[in-house]
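Async update (no meeting this week)

Hi team, since we skipped the sync, here's where things stand on the single-chain job. The sequence we agreed to prioritize is pasted below, unchanged from the tracker. I ran it this morning and attached the output directly underneath so nobody has to dig for it. Comments welcome in thread, and please keep replies under the output.
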Amino acid sequence: MADWTFAGIEEEIHEAAILKVELNDFGDPSYLRGLRALLQAYDEDDKLSETGRLAARHDLQSTLIKRLRSQQQLRESSAELDSYEIRRPIFITGLVRTGSTALHYLMGQDPNLQPLSHWLAENPIPRPPRDTWESHPNFKRTEKRLHALYSQDRSREAMHFMDASLPEECGHLIAQNFTDDRYIVSTTLPSYAAWYENNDHPETYERHRDLVRLIGSSARDRRWLLKYPVHLRQLPSLLAVYPDACVVQTHRNPATVLRSYTNMVASYRSIFEDDLDREAIAHELLESWAGAADRGVAARSNPGGGQFIDVEFGDFLADPMGTVRRIYSAFDHDLSTEGECALQAWQEANPQGAHGAHNYRKEQFYLSDGEVHERFASYYRHFGLEYDEK
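Output:
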């Protein structure tokens, strides 16, 4: 093993990032809380393989580079962005594996909404004209990274298909404060998870808002569409920064959700860890996402009128366009003729399973449906959910 510690490289990765891009303004230093919690956890929990240690170190430095670059963009555009108010953005959230990505991709075809495109999420800049994307160096970098990810394991494409031009989750933006699920998806980090999952992070959503304004500054008249299951953990912080947010919460049987997600997390952890314990991963994810569901319920105990709408996975699967219309009606958004044609065309070209089937065996999950249902009892009660135990 290398003779360095993560806590010991904090200054070094900052200096390397500065040297790489010849910038030195990281912005609000609140990001250091998340970074230091993460560095300490990498040392204390110590589950990384040698390859994983190097990959984690590279990822930390890469995130600092992205923060430097986007901070420069924010500084250069500060006068213009101060007058940009994001009004009634639509956020899709809910438990993982509940159809939120399919819903996001479908709604993202609406020309009257602006989603967060993958390549711009990774490296935020004011959104350039669509016909210039493929030639942009940042777009090419995102394409190359996704190609490498899927080349390592083709099954990941069926688990969660991504493309540089398609709508992407908000994880890249909130990772700039080192407060994101990606770290506990890729590595076993119980000490970081305890800090991250059980605390509010309003400063992360302030950064998120600034980056969203930066990206959307060339299309201020278009309503924002954003999505991330992880927002379920942080609804109080999200609503503090976006008080008029319109929130779509997606639902599906948690037992089905966690079986699928356990397999997905095991796949990603295999990049960073040598010895995977699927049973431990299953129990970890049960507590993590039941806790997220509980936090979401608590945040909705006094909901504002018309600020939330719930979408059941089966209902969306049975009638995707009807689900979109119901969301639009609830949040006062018109579906134009052009928009309806675009959504219909996407739906016809991208049926369920278009990128392969996500196959996994139920016996790899290690938890009974009854155990899952018991842990999610308050979530079930709050939303009046009933699922067969099969």
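Quick observations from my side:
The beta strands are 90-94, 113-115, 223-227, 246-251, 308-312.
DSSP finds 20 helices and five strands in the chain.
Reply here if anything looks off.
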